[in-house]
Every structure is written in C-alpha cells, then in structure tokens.
Design goal:
2 helices, elongated, about 50 residues
Amino acid sequence: MTGNGTIRRICMWYKSLVGAYNPKIVDLVTYQSYLTKVIAKDVPKILFSV
C-alpha cells in the first residue's frame, strides 16, 4: 500500500502548488490526472492477467 500513499502525497503537493494559482480548477485537474494514471496503470494489468 506504499504506492497509494505516494500517489496521495504527490496529489496533495500538486494540489497545493496549483491551488495557489487557480483554486477553482485544482480539484478537477488533480482528480482527472489521478484517474488517468490509475487507469493507464491498472487496466492493462487487469486485461492481460485474465
């Protein structure tokens, strides 16, 4: 579960960094980039492991 902690830490750092410039879009951007990374990583694994 260390990977999840790392991702969460990076998202928090990114959120604080971007939030300083544009707090309105920060949640959407962080959420979208997080989902994109998770999907790109996990979906191929799930598909090819079945």
